[in-house]
Amino acid sequence: MSKLPDAELLVETLAEQIRPLLERNVALVGIHSGGAWLAQRLQQQLGDDIPLGSLDISFYRDDFSRIGLHSQVKPSSINFEVEGCHIILVDDVLYTGRTIRGAMNELFDYGRPASVTLAVLVDRGGREIPVEAQVVGAKVQLKPGENLELTRDQAGKFHFILHEAA
Amino acid sequence: MNNPQLTKDGKLKHLLSIEGLPKTILNQILDTAESFAGVSEREVKKVPLLRGKTVCNIFFENSTRTRTTFEIAAKRLSADVVSLNVGTSSQAKGETILDTVDNLIAMHADMFVVRHAQSGAAHFIARHVPSHIHVINAGDGRHSHPTQGLLDVFTIRRHKREFHNLRVAIVGDVLHSRVARSEIHALTTLGVPEVRVIAPKTLLPADVERLGVQVFHDMRAGLKDVDVVMMLRLQNERMSGALLPSAQEYFKCYGLTQEKLALAKSDAIVMHPGPMNRGVEIDSSVADGSQSVILPQVTYGIAVRMAVMSILAGNPE
């Protein structure tokens, strides 16, 4: 692709779209690792009182039997009552949709949320299962071998980098 | 060197003993267990990792705690679990170990958890099974009990965070203890600088210093300023031999009392692999006291066994 999206700008867009959704019982849950950073930032921008959680979906991946367990699994952390909560599930890049499926399966093992809204920084298409985001920072077109990765620098600023399959 | 526990590219295929495992693999198990510890506190205490897999617990020797925690761990990973007490089944009718194993393989078992009174039994089975099957040693003779060693270091890490500044004492019947051997290998591999063993001469292996430990026969000297006290079970049958004069005598010299524990650091933790002989190796007031982490050990044992099973299942040959 010609020009990488400006991650910092997209975070602003995302925050503005989420602001109207902040009803009483809302929580932000980020998917490890990019989504967890984003959810943390969104909480800073939208209100410190919003409960924040993170999910590492390693135990819910559908390709476990092919690639095994990731060598660095991080603990998932949901320290609030999921039951009856309006969850905003946050991830950096929406691609096949499989990660979101895993995350929702894990989320429901903590309880039954009142609703789940998916918010992603970018949607790059290429879905393999019927999962769509309600809140999208930007849609981008990528070639099949290309992958976008969100990084966070030492100052805490977000950047996208592009990986191309050899 | 060919390590039967590892695949060609160095991943964990079987868990047979801690000896010979690199620090990276021990840390991977401990880190993964950290994530599983959270699973057991959730509304739904289950993850779908081993859905469709069959785990067979084959216990040629009795054990309640180890078998139950392996069973719960496998179930929390969504595996199907079969537990056999072989002492009361076909073995009693004369079937060999390998015939028992082959029959379970014919039933499409994917993983074996094996306890046996003979050292090397799990290795023997691991050499025999086809390459897609994983074997976990749940205790073999005096040799090894790797998941116990791992849950012990996991407990220490949870309470002390780092290993590199610890002084750890292992007290009791080291000679007959597979738990002690696994603990010593785990502690030294993870970089604990000072591991002490405290026991009478009759309950220590002749070459115990070669494992990298300091030997104490006087419990009071050995407990001085330690961060962790790991008690061992004194098996009752040892009393009948010539190794020890009596249980009372043993308690007097090597039983852990509040008064002896006071010689360790004030924040020292007390561990025991169970089952405990209260009043023989440990006083009830210590076992139930504020420094005891004996029951948390049991809880952590589930997370550690979940970690081991899921790492193995994800590493096909």
Estimate nothing, just give the exact number of structural domains of chain A. Answer: 1
Strand content of chain B: 5-15%
Helix content percent band of chain B: 25-40%
Give the C-level CATH assignment of the largest domain in chain B.
Answer: Alpha Beta
The outline of chain B comes out as globular
Contiguous low-pLDDT stretches of chain A (5 residues minimum) are: none
Distance between the termini of chain A: 16 Å
Which key phrases capture this entry?
heterodimer, A: 166 residues, alpha/beta, Rossmann fold, five-stranded parallel β-sheet, two-stranded antiparallel ribbon, 4 helices, B: 317 residues, 2 domains, four-stranded parallel β-sheet
Molecular structure report:
With 166 residues, chain A is an alpha/beta fold. Chain A has a single domain, classed as Rossmann fold. Helix content of chain A is 24%, strand content 28%. Chain A contains 4 helices and 7 strands, in the order αβαβαβαββββ. By secondary structure, chain B is α/β, with parallel strands linked by helices. Chain B is built from 12 helices and 9 strands. In chain B, strands 7-6-5-8-9 form a 5-stranded parallel β-sheet. Chain B has a 4-stranded parallel β-sheet with strand order 2-1-3-4, with helices on both faces. Chain B has helices at residues 23-39, 65-76, 97-106, 121-128, 146-160, 178-189, 219-223, 237-240, 247-254, 258-261, 284-287, 294-313; strands spanning 54-59, 80-85, 111-116, 134-140, 167-171, 194-198, 214-216, 228-231, 269-271. Chain B folds into 2 domains: 23-144 and 298-313, Rossmann fold (3-Layer(aba) Sandwich), CATH 3.40.50.1370; 146-294, Aspartate/ornithine carbamoyltransferase (Rossmann fold, 3-Layer(aba) Sandwich), CATH 3.40.50.1370. The chains are: A alpha/beta (166), B alpha/beta (317). The interface between A and B is medium-sized, with 25 and 23 residues.
